[in-house]
Structures are given as C-alpha cells and as structure tokens.
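Good morning N.,

You mentioned wanting to compare the apo and holo forms, so I went ahead and generated the holo version with 2-phosphoglycolic acid. This is what I fed in:
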Amino acid sequence: MARRKYVVGNWKMNGLKSALGEAEAIFAAAGQQSAVDVALCPPFTMVGALAALPKAVVGGQDCHAAQSGAYTGSVSAPMLVDSGARLVLVGHSERREGFAESDADVKAKAEAALAAGLNVILCCGEPLSVRESGDAIAFVLNQIEHSLPDAFDADRLAIAYEPIWAIGTGLVPTLNDVSAMHGALREALRGRVGGKADQMRLLYGGSVNGENAAELLSAGDVDGALVGGASLSAAKFNPIVDAAAALAG
Ligand code: PGA
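and this is what came out, ligand included:
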C-alpha cells in the first residue's frame, strides 16, 4: 500500500510572531502539493497563530502526560488541541536527553496525546557511541518497544528515526544505514500491529535539507522527513516538500 509522504518541520525553541510569514509561505506552497502531507511544529506560544493560517497543519513539540493539574510550565494534549494543534512530537532526543525523559514518560505522553485526539510522531534515535559500537538497531528497537503505546491506530502514529549525532550537525547516515534502520522498525511494528505496520509512516530526521532530501526520501521504508533547522524558512523548507512531491509522482 502506498504511504503518503509526510514532511514535518520542528521549529524547536525558535519562532516569534515575526516568523508567521514563513509559516504562511510554507503552508501556501504545501497546499499546492496534493501528494504530500506537511505540518509545522512551532513553540507552544505560536501554535494558535500558525493554526489560524490557511492550509495549516500544526503540531506541538511535546505535551504533558496529564490532562491538567499542578504542573507549572507544562502544556497538556487537550490544551494543544484547544489551540488548534492536530499532532504532537513525543520523545524527541532533545527532550529525552535535556529533560531526562524515559521511554515510560514518552509512552505516557503518546497515550495522552492519542486520547486527546492528536496524531503522534514518536521520535527515536541512537547517540554516536551506540552507532559506533554497531548496536544502533538494537538500541532503537528497544526504545520503540518501551515507548510505543500498548494500543494505537496505525494511521494516527508515525515514527521519526533521528540519529542524535545527525541532528543539527550536517552529518547524515548512509542510505543503507537509514534503510536498514527503517526496515528493522517496520518489522518490529509488524510484531505489534501486524499488517497495519505497512500503513505507518516512518520519517527520517537529522540534517535534512533541500540538497539531500531527494536521496534520503528515496531510501527504502522512508516515508517522510522531520526537519529542524531547514524548516525555519520557506526558502529552505519548500524544496524539501518539492522533493517529497517529486518522489510521490
Ligand atoms: P535538524 O533537526 O534538521 O536541524 O538536524 C532535526 C530534528 O531535531 O528534528
């Protein structure tokens, strides 16, 4: 079954109101591409403003596992929905590493997001030491085994494989390594959801840009990209969407 390409921008802690024009230009161009799904994940403060733009599909970058309560500084999945978000990233390595989020935390967040009606992009990826020791696939499959919700609709959850050493560094894995990882992820997902794993989109993330997107997106079992730095401007992001559209035919 053909899976629609999916290109998602993660603005991280970037984006003031002055960046709205970039988002507008990104969604306007995406609206012309019928074969590609495009979404942007801005900081919480910008979710509502982006969601109000024409053709917008907006996500959060994280959510709390609880619906509400005494969690100063946190934002819940129902709050994201209330602000206009339709999806959320969970388990980004910058959350896992910088905020000590465990697989169990990521799983709880994914479950809360699905329960609130958000689609989920669950992130995974190995540090450089693990890649160098040759254990990357086992490491990532273990992350996924423990971070996936017990039950989920295959069409509401995507996986983003982002090797930590490739994020923001300009380094990218070989196509063989990307395909091997995505193939292993697909196989592991079959163990969880059977044939529905073939509907699930597996995104690659880590230094994706307009120059390397066509190649990375053509690797086996790669259904899209999660893009950080190159998602901050339409000039850099739209060529990635164009590359995905060209592959989608
Ligand atoms: P990058 O970030 O594209 O800037 O490497 C990707 C990500 O962290 O999602």
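The pocket of 2-phosphoglycolic acid is lined by residues 10, 162, 167-168, 205-208, 226-230 (CB under 6 Å).

Happy to go through it together on a call whenever suits you.

Best,
F.
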